[in-house]
Structures are given as C-alpha cells and as structure tokens.
Amino acid sequence: MAVWVATTVTGMVISWAGVGDAMRGTTLAGPDLAAEVPVRQGRPPGPAPSSGASAEPAPSPSPTSSSPRPGSGGTSTAAGGGRSASPKPSQAPGETVRTYTVKSGRVVLALSGDEARLVSATPDNGFRAKVWRQSKWLRVDLTDDVHGSAVFAKWNGHPPIIQVYEY
Q: pTM of the entire structure?
C-alpha cells in the first residue's frame, strides 16, 4: 500500500510540474508588462507627408475583427464590448510585449528592435478599434468618433517610440 501511495503522489507531482511548465507563456503566465508612457492630450499628429499616407485614413465601412496583413498599409476596425482586433496572437523570439491601458480600452503591442506589432486592441463598451499600419509606423485608435485614445508607434532605423494620446 505504501508503495502505491508513494508512486501515485510522485506521479501527481510530476504531472503538476509538467502542467506548470506548459502554462508558462499563456494568459495565466503572470502580470502584464504595462508600459509607462506620458499621455498627451489631443489627437496625434498625422504621419509626415513623406510617408505616403494621409493623416486620417478612412477605416473600412463595416466593423470587423480582422486586421490587414502587416505592412499592407490598410486599416481595420473592431467594435467594442469584448471583441478585439488581433492580427498575430503569439509572441516571436526577441519581442517584448507591452500593455497600454488607456481611457477607452487596452492596446497590447509586441516590440522588437526594429518594429512594433499589434497583438490585440480591446476597446471598452461603446468604443471601437481602428488600426493603421505602414512600413515605419502603427497607429491604434480606440474611439467612439468623438472621444478616444490613440497608441502610436513609430520606428525608422531605431527601436519603436510609443506615444499615447487621449482626445
């Protein structure tokens, strides 16, 4: 009987240790790495004219939870209430994931040495996510078309610079 108990307990310990290792890196992994950046008031300025993009690109006509392919230069929108725009959910090697909690929701970006990538955009109820991406910048607005928050990442031969705006 003692051998059976010892074997059972040992098996359970090994199983739980394996489950713990498997759970690391999932949503249960640990606290979000929340980014501390100064918050600016007002809408963010438009990209420089040389970037080839307009200051306020028009979003797609109907809300969708999909996002354009990285580098496509397109826009996308996602309605609030728990849905999020989420182009690539996994973290690549060498990336640091940062969470930006703003007045109208939450934006999660994966930052590497030479670019930023949207992991998720979760607008609060009544807001929706609008995403623009070009080759050297990424902008995520969580807006109700009057008020909102913008997380703007810019890079051009340097690590991403993140700016947060409340408007």
A: 0.58
Per-residue 3-state assignment (H helix, E strand, C coil) for 5-52 = HHHHHHHHHHHHHHHHHHHCCCCCCCCCCECCCCEEECCCCCCCHHHC
**From the first residue on, what is the mean pLDDT of each consecutive set of 10 residues in the chain (167 residues)?**
83 70 49 70 63 37 34 48 49 87 96 94 97 96 95 94 95
Write down the pLDDT at residue 122: 97
Give the chain's length.
167
Backbone angles phi, psi at 50, to 5 degrees: -70, -10
pLDDT score, position 30 = 46
Q: Are strands 148-154 and 137-143 parallel, antiparallel or unpaired?
A: antiparallel
